[in-house]
C-alpha cells in the first residue's frame, strides 16, 4: 500500500522519513510506470532531489503542511525552469522563468515537484493524446484516463505520486478522477488562483487536486486556497440531498453502472441525510449552444496568445476557427449563463448538495483521437462526459467521489455539486461516503 500525502507529510515532519527518501520512491515508481501509461511530460529527477534535500535541511519541517510530498503538476501552468508545452508542438519549448501562483503555494507548503504531466493539445479534450503520445488508464490501458488532466490522474492512479495538480474548465479534473477512481475537486470560482485571463476559458477553469483519499484532497485544497482550516474535514449536519441520473444534454444515455453508483451512494447516505429524487431544469440550449460557445471561444483566446495556431492539430485548428466565429458574432455572451444560474439557484433553494453520475458512459478508448477529427472527438466527449460542464459555466464547486467498480472492473464515481462556498461541505460529505463505501486507492 502506497503512503498517502497526509502520511508522508506527517512522517517528514516528525523525522521518521526524509523528503529525499519519499522523492526517490516516487521517482522509482515513475520509472516503472511511465512506459505503460505515458503519464509524464517532464520528469524532474535531479531538480526534485535537490528540492527534497532543501526540505530535509529545514528546521521548520513541522510547519510545512505538505512536507516532502512528491507531487505532479499538469503541463499547462508554469513551473520555473521547465517548458510549458500544453500538449502542443505549437507552443514554446523555452523554460519558464517563474512559478504559477499555485505552484508557488505548493512549494511553500513543502511539496516536491517531481514532474509535469501530459495533457491533450491546449487541454481542449476529455481524452489525453497529443503529439507527445497517448496516455493510458492504469485500470485498463485500452481506455483513456480522461482529460484534460489525464496525465495527472494516471500518475496518481498508477501509484507514482499520492497527489497531483489538475485544472478543470469543462470537467478536466472530475472526468479523469472518474475514469481513474480518484477524488477530484473543482473549487468554485475565485477560491484558488487561476492566472492569466486568456487561459481561464472565460472564467470557467479552476485549479484543484487529484488524490486517492478525501483527506489528501482537503489537505491539498487547503494549500491551493491558502485556507489552513480547510484541511480539517468537517462532519456535515443533516443535508438536503437531491439525486439525479438525468443528463444535462437531451437523448444522452447513462450506462447502468454509473446510474447504479448514484442510487447505491444515495442509499448509504439515507440514514443521516434527507434524500430526494430531483433534477435541475437544465436549459435546452445549455450544452449545444452556451457550453459550446464558451468552450470554443475560450480555447481560441488561449491559442492566439500561447501558441502558433497554424501549427495546431487539424481538429484544434477547426476548434479555434469556430471559436473565432463565435466571438465575432457575439455568441459567447452572458445571457445563457445567467439563465442557467437562475435555474440552479432556484433548484438549490431547498437543496444543499446534488448527486449525479460523474460520467454517462465508461471511459472511451485510448487512441490518437486527433487523427479521427474534430467531429468524432466532439461526439465521443459529449456522449461519455456530459455531467461536468454545467457547473463550470456558472463557477460552482463540484467533485468526483469514487463509488466502486462496474461489471468490467473499471471505476465508477458520483459527482457532488454544491452552492458557491460549499467546498468544505462537499469534502465532508465525500469523507462520509469514503467511510461507508471505501474504494481501492490505486489500480
TrEMBL record:
Molecular function GO terms recorded: amidase activity
Ranges in a coiled coil: none
InterPro entries: Amidase (IPR000120), Amidase_dom (IPR023631), AS_sf (IPR036928)
Record domain Amidase: where: 22-427
Superkingdom classification of source: Bacteria
Catalytic activity: a monocarboxylic acid amide + H2O = a monocarboxylate + NH4(+)
Pfam family, one: Amidase
Enzyme class: hydrolase
Family in the record: Belongs to the amidase family.
Protein name per the record: amidase
